[in-house]
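Hi Prof. W.,

I finally got the histidine kinase prediction working! I wasn't sure whether to trim anything, so I left the full sequence exactly as given:
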Amino acid sequence: MSTRDELVSFARRSAHDLNNTVAALSMAVEIALDMAPEGDEDMTGLLERIHRNAVKLGETVDGLPDRAREWPLEDGDA
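And this is what came out:
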């Protein structure tokens, strides 16, 4: 297996593992949003911000294998 293949494989495994954590975070925030007191706009705003960032993190993590395929390697690495 080439260095490139190893990097992509590592990125794929890492993305899978990290996405489990991101999914748990998103689910917890969704539950907290459902349970937030009516009219508590500060709490709701904070939770919505956390959720948006969790979604963004998930999208970034999903892109790790593609980024690994494009990552520049030193000469002699495939």
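The helical segments are 3-35, 41-62, 64-70. Does that look reasonable to you?

Thanks,
D.
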